[in-house]
UniProtKB/TrEMBL annotation:
PANTHER family the UniProt entry points to: PENTACOTRIPEPTIDE-REPEAT REGION OF PRORP DOMAIN-CONTAINING PROTEIN, PPR CONTAINING PLANT-LIKE PROTEIN
PROSITE patterns named among the record's database cross-references: PPR
Protein name stated in the entry: PROP1-like PPR domain-containing protein
A GO molecular-function annotation: RNA binding
InterPro entries: PPR_rpt, PROP1-like_PPR_dom, THA8-like, TPR-like_helical_dom_sf
Annotated NCBIfam families: PPR
One Pfam family matching this protein: PPR_long
Entry keyword set: Repeat
PPR repeat feature ranges: 129-163, 164-198
Occurrences of domain PROP1-like PPR (ranges): 106-213
GO process annotations (BP): chloroplast organization; Group II intron splicing
């Protein structure tokens, strides 16, 4: 399912004039994801392997596989997709529904993943799960669906959760991915102000994307944060420089 211009199901509502970050929570639902023509190439590593939450099973059941296949076949026809949700998806057990969601995320089926995510939130067994939200943030950010990421970030708060380091990092990475550097910087500062501790991924994203002289002072602050929050900061910076040698040197000043 392509994402040149993706219209997500109207479940988290999308206000195109929405501005983030704000210190308030709104009732939101995703209705569409804007496309981006930015040519900025951004590195949001250190993602050497997929993060697999403990609640995800290793193998999909027959029911989960059939549900995923049925959703993909019916995706182009709203009425047919609604029937699949009524006859198959809504009848899945908790494990099978979460496995189906994880598989749709793995296949980058964004619209279907959003719909299944919201189906899970309707189930009697559902309790707000930050890991589920973070996986959705990552998928949406990877597809440059920045407004949808913002909405999902607000929705997790509406669900009674507080963002952790990963949630802020996914939001920050989404901003950098479409070239909205100032919002990425602001989100990094919010991460620290919230009491969360920047991890290697957050620090690497900042260092890799603030390469111009305009942000030299911020880069120095991030380097100091490496000293503050990491064991072996020099080794970390050398690792980032080794992986991406064409960018600016990252020695601590």
């Amino acid at each position: 399912m392509g994402l040149g211009t993706v219209h997500l199901l109207p479940q988290l509502g999308l206000n195109p004039k929405f501005e983030f970050p704000k210190n308030r929570t709104r009732h939101l639902s995703i209705s569409q994801v804007p496309s981006s023509s930015s040519s900025l190439q951004v590195v949001c590593g250190l993602r050497n392997r997929a993060r697999t939450p403990l609640w995800k099973s290793r193998l999909l059941s027959t029911e989960a596989i059939q549900a995923v296949q049925s959703m993909k076949l019916a995706a182009a026809t709203p009425d047919a997709l609604d029937r699949v949700f009524k006859t198959r998806v809504s009848r899945l057990l908790k494990r099978d529904l979460l496995d189906a969601l994880a598989e749709l995320q793995r296949q980058n089926e964004v619209e279907l993943a959003v719909k299944v995510f919201n189906q899970a939130r309707k189930e009697v067994w559902y309790t707000p799960d930050l890991c589920m939200y973070n996986d959705m943030l990552r998928m949406l950010g990877k597809n440059k669906a920045v407004e949808a990421v913002e909405m999902m970030f607000c929705e997790l708060r509406k669900d009674g959760l507080e963002p952790d380091t990963r949630a802020y990092t996914e939001l920050m990475g989404a901003y950098f991915k479409v070239g909205t550097v100032e919002k990425g910087i602001e989100t990094y500062e919010l991460l620290k102000e919230s009491g969360c501790v920047p991890d290697k991924l957050a620090l690497a994203i900042m260092l890799r994307n603030l390469k111009d002289t305009k942000h030299a002072d911020i880069v120095k602050r991030v380097k100091k944060d490496c000293q503050l929050y990491l064991d072996g900061p020099e080794e970390f910076l050398q690792e980032v420089e080794r992986k991406y040698p064409k960018r600016m040197p990252l020695t601590i000043v």
